[in-house]
Design a protein that fits this description.
The protein is α+β, with helices and mostly antiparallel strands. The protein has a single domain, classed as Transferase(Phosphotransferase) domain 1 (Transferase(Phosphotransferase), domain 1, Orthogonal Bundle). It has seven helices and ten strands. The protein has helices at 56-65, 104-107, 115-132, 221-224, 232-247, 261-269, 274-278, and strands spanning 12-13, 16-24, 28-35, 41-47, 79-87, 90-98, 135-136, 156-158, 174-176, 203-204. It has a six-stranded antiparallel sheet with strand order 1-2-3-4-6-5, covered by helices on one side. α3 (115-132) runs antiparallel to α5 (232-247). The longest helix has 18 residues, at 115-132. The radius of gyration is 20 Å and the shape is globular. Mean pLDDT is 77; it is low at 134-146.
């Protein structure tokens, strides 16, 4: 568990009743919950304690919420509320956002009859959402759509010790399988509206990080060669993402050390890779 907090189905956090698990990430676990005040279902992103103090993702979501007139606003996650939970001497930040559906990989299965149209729809909405931000926003794993899933379908198992002894404090009594892992692919609706929701490794352009965390196959050459980042790295990552969505392939397949990507870049983008080859 590390710095995570144990959360169980039926538990009330602030005004939110936990009803299902949606996904698991490196920095957080996302739960579906019922807002007891409004009667609406929402998602709760429970962050690790180590990432809860002065959280950059919270600051970014609050900043984006003020950009109400931008055409890409509806393709960015909407922060509804946030609060802290104190358990076993740890403080964990909870981000409350709109309840969304499965990721692009799963949504694609509902569009097998017309993949080109799906690719165009996703690419257009992704560009709109990315255009709202003047910061490093990219996340390859979290691009879900608006959709109300069957939240009453819960798959969970008890947690026990092999020696039969009681569980130590801080461990969950049950393990819940994320909802979308066991849903039948064809039970998912077609994609209508995509949202970018994961800003856990993002930062403001005015507060650059020494290290930008982006997966290698979508990382701009500046990042691979440890050069200063600029908004250009987001454009590169966006292009690589759209290319992957459309072709299921990668622009570059580097092997060995970082410099192995140079011939890949030259093969794919031609003369515009000259500056990297010369340097």
């Amino acid at each position: 568990m590390g710095s995570r907090i144990p959360i169980h189905i039926g538990v009330l956090l602030d005004r939110y009743e936990i009803v299902n698990k949606l996904s698991v990430g490196g920095y957080s676990i996302v739960w579906a919950a019922l807002d007891r005040h409004t009667g609406m279902h929402v998602s709760l992103k429970a962050l690790k304690a180590a990432h809860s103090e002065d959280n950059m993702e919270l600051r970014i979501l609050q900043h984006l919420a003020r950009e109400t007139q931008h055409p890409g606003r509806r393709h960015i996650a909407k922060l509804l509320h946030h609060f802290d939970v104190h358990v076993h001497g740890k403080k964990n930040l909870i981000l409350v956002m709109e309840l969304l559906g499965p990721n692009l990989r799963d949504s694609r299965l509902a569009h097998l009859g017309d993949i080109p149209a799906f690719n165009r729809l996703v690419s257009r909405q992704l560009v709109f959402g990315a255009g709202l931000s003047t910061l490093e926003w990219y996340s390859a794993r979290r691009l879900p759509q608006r959709y109300t899933p069957p939240l009453d379908q819960v798959v969970q198992g008890d947690v026990t010790r092999e020696d039969g002894a009681p569980l130590p404090p801080g461990l969950p009594r049950h393990i819940v399988m994320p909802l979308y892992r066991y849903m039948h692919p064809h039970s998912r609706p077609k994609l209508e509206q995509l949202q970018i929701i994961d800003f856990s490794t993002s930062f403001f352009a005015t507060e650059p990080h020494a290290r930008v965390l982006t997966m290698e196959h979508v990382a701009a050459p500046e990042l691979i060669f440890r050069m200063p980042a600029s908004p250009a790295v987001d454009i590169w990552s966006l292009a690589c993402t759209i290319f992957y969505i459309a072709t299921k392939g990668r622009i570059a397949y580097p092997w060995g050390d970082d410099y192995a990507i140079l011939p890949c870049l030259n093969l794919v983008i031609g003369e515009s890779s000259a500056q990297w080859l010369l340097n």
